[in-house]
Design a protein that fits this description.
It is a single chain. This protein is α/β, with parallel strands linked by helices. It folds into 2 domains: 146 residues, ATPase, nucleotide binding domain (Nucleotidyltransferase, domain 5, 2-Layer Sandwich), CATH 3.30.420; 188 residues, ATPase, nucleotide binding domain (Nucleotidyltransferase, domain 5, 2-Layer Sandwich), CATH 3.30.420. The protein has 15 helices and 14 strands. The strands form 2 sheets. An 8-stranded mixed β-sheet has the order 5-4-3-2-1-6-8-7, with helices on both faces. A 6-stranded mixed β-sheet has the order 11-10-9-12-14-13, with helices on both faces. Strand 9 and strand 10 form a beta hairpin. The radius of gyration is 21 Å and the shape is globular. The relative contact order is 0.11. Bound molecules: adenosine monophosphate. The site of adenosine monophosphate (AMP) has 11 residues, from helix 10 and helix 12.
Length: 399
Amino acid sequence: MKILVINCGSSSLKYKLIEMNDDKVLCQGLVERIGIENSLLVHKNLFQEKYSIKENFSNHKDAIDKVLKILLDEKLGVISNINEIYAVGHRVVHGGEKYSNSVLIDDEVIRYLEECIKLAPIHNPPNIIGIKACRELMQDTPMIAVFDTAFHQSMPDIAYIYPIEYSLYEEHGIRKYGFHGTSHKYVSQKLGEVLDRDIEDMKIISCHLGNGASICAIKEGKSIDTSMGFTPLAGIAMGTRSGNIDPSIYTFLIEECGYTVEETNESLNKKSGVLGISGISSDFRDLEKAALEGNKRAKLALDIFYYRIRGQIAAYAAHMGGVDAIIFTAGIGENSSITRKACLKGMEFLGVKIDEELNNIRGEIVEISGDTSKVKVFVIPTNEELMIAKETIEVLNCS
Ligand code: AMP
């Protein structure tokens, strides 16, 4: 059974065709610069061989049409008939308060996703465009929406209500939603598989540390709190995003520093985080190298990143009354042994001890906690596309 996973950004489109019998990725690709000149489609086959196709795609529908043609192509293709695609799973960033699970897409669902545009003005519109394009091109194929926010809908109100006027929640939906839900769900379920334990009996803290970064407290298999908030700008410091700061800084920038609203958004989203502090880069490889070479601001940026993660982990351990396992995932979490070690420094009081040798092992799934650690610490590569494909099948089996 083959599932096509689609992830549309404002000018990009990522796709993966997955054979669900053995979770094998049959092919995958990325289209960039949709609607801009010099669009480029890079397609990789089963053997990771790359094919670059230069063609101008004026919109997402053109790009998806091309992707479907490639899937059917004699040389590059992997299917001989479009009906071999059992269903399409779409990544959708915001499912508002209505969707706590993935859902079969119909006109009503699209209407609601359009309502959610105000909550995710950058992300939801391209997601919806991708869904509409696929529906037009594959009229007989079921489409499923899988939301970044859905996993966090299990948070209790004490976690998601902000201490501001309650009417702002009631009338405008201003509350914590949380993001990266597909990733937190995937790695926590994977942990259960690896340990052969029911995660319903566990307290887990999942650290998704990539360009965007968030931490999630998972109790009885459900998200009970997460660091991102109303938008993905909140929480710990990130590559270019500030994370939590005093909200008055926003008005100070406008009133005292002469920033426009756009410049303020741009500053906090794109010029802050470790890039803002270091002035060098948002990439942890650059920062780690610079810090080793004695660059003080690179070191400060990294130390602030670790400091905030440590604080978040400790807070979630307190909220859950302990922690059984900590997971590191995404670009930084999976690759930076320096980050993992630094984030867990001084955590012995919680029963966390990592083994330096194990922490340096590179591989798929690695347990990096030492024998004497009460808390298990794992590196688990995330696989949001596989999770989307699995959810897609689950929705169809249940409907
Ligand atoms: P993601 O958003 O999950 O793709 O993560 C991207 C980020 O992972 C990059 O910006 C880097 O900061 C980080 N990263 C990737 N590889 C490494 C590595 N070997 N060491 C440290 N950081 C890395």
